[in-house]
């Protein structure tokens, strides 16, 4: 028997995506629907109709796709020569009917992007992340949030089926099941996601103690017995801080900012700051080698560093003569290097 669920369909299915993209990619819709378009009255005709359906029809769990926040509006207009049928009222299917507050398709997308960056969305987006990618996706928290989909859409069931002894007919049925119901994305965040709105207010970093190696991030080597603002990080929202080494001769520090950037400073011995050299850095310096990679966590050892990405990938660098970098050798690294031995493993 399958576990109980609340939704027999899923928010991420080929049919739901192509519902919005039929004008841009009609050939994919024809492939999905055995050479035919869906009935004209069930196509994406007007924003208000789709909105009302999602709000009032418990089987309609569509979500807006990324195209609603990009600049190409062609998925909202019917190109010349594309015949999508005629509605029951005799009206041929044409362009998508926009809300009255949108002057054009381009203006509609522009206002969608503005809404995405609004204070209201910034204050509430993390709740959606918790449901789709976070701690409310499965288990007890999902039950509390009424976020239960058919069990075959989840990773655990998918992995179990793929590794089981399954005959050809069963695999075909399983493939059809995935196509019909969709799949839940892999869970990325085991804890509640922070609210974006709180990052609008910079969270400053203070440091105190010995500063012989510049590990405080304050330009002078003077010892400070009371917390001092690390001015090189002013304007940034610091999510986490890590410190390593000896306070006297090898101390160093690192922070992860809400922008996803990593900054390191202090003693650069063995390349542990990750800047491609072994130089001392007295003030916070952005780790350019990681720019563009979504960093989830930073950690410092005595003479090496590690960062965990949102994807679960691990990068390490610094002193490696005891194998602590995990690269299968005893070499030191002066720049971040991915730990390939963990490929396919889920980071925690």
3D architecture notes:
This protein has helices spanning 14-21, 26-32, 47-56, 105-116, 119-132, 139-144, 155-163, 168-181; strands at residues 206-209, 224-229, 238-244, 252-257, 262-266, 281-286, 295-300, 304-309, 314-318, 333-338. The chain is of the alpha+beta class and 348 residues long. The strands form 3 sheets. The protein has a 4-stranded antiparallel beta sheet, with no helix packed on it. The protein is elongated. The model has no long low-confidence stretch (mean pLDDT 89).
Contiguous runs where pLDDT drops below 50 for at least 5 residues? none
Helix percent reads 10-25%
Task: List the secondary-structure elements in sequence, H or E.
Answer: HHHHHHHHEEEEEEEEEE
DSSP summary, beta strand count: 10
- Overall geometry comes to elongated
Question: How would you describe this structure in keywords?
Answer:
348 residues; 16% strand; single chain; 8 helices; alpha+beta
């Amino acid at each position: 028997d399958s576990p109980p669920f609340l939704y027999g369909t899923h928010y991420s299915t080929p049919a739901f995506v192509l519902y919005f993209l039929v004008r841009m990619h009609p050939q994919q819709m024809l492939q999905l629907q055995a050479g035919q378009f869906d009935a004209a009255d069930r196509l994406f005709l007007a924003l208000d109709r789709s909105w009302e359906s999602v709000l009032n029809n418990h089987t309609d769990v569509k979500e807006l796709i990324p195209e609603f926040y990009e600049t190409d509006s062609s998925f909202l207009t019917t190109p010349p020569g594309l015949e999508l049928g005629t509605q029951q009222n005799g009206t041929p299917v044409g362009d998508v009917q926009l809300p009255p507050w949108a002057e054009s398709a381009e203006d509609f997308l522009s206002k969608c992007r503005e809404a995405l960056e609004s204070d209201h969305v910034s204050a509430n987006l993390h709740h959606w992340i918790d449901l789709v990618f976070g701690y409310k996706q499965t288990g007890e928290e999902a039950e509390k949030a009424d976020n239960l989909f058919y069990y075959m859409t989840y990773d655990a069931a998918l992995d179990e089926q793929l590794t089981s002894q399954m005959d050809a007919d069963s695999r075909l049925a399983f493939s059809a099941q995935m196509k019909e119901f969709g799949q839940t994305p892999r869970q990325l965040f085991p804890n509640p996601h922070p609210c974006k709105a709180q990052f609008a207010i910079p969270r400053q970093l203070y440091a105190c103690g010995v500063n012989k190696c510049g590990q405080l991030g304050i330009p002078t080597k003077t010892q400070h017995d009371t917390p001092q603002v690390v001015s090189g990080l002013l304007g940034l929202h610091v999510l986490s801080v890590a410190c390593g080494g000896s306070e006297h001769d090898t101390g160093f520090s690192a922070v992860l900012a809400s922008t996803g950037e990593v900054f390191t400073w202090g003693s650069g011995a063995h390349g542990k700051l990750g800047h491609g050299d072994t130089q001392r850095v007295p003030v916070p310096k952005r780790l350019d080698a990681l720019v563009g990679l979504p960093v989830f966590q930073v950690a410092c050892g005595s003479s090496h560093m590690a960062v965990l990405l949102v994807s679960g990938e691990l990068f390490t660098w610094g002193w490696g003569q005891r194998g602590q970098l995990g690269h299968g050798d005893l070499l030191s690294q002066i720049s971040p290097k991915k730990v390939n031995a963990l490929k396919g493993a889920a980071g925690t």
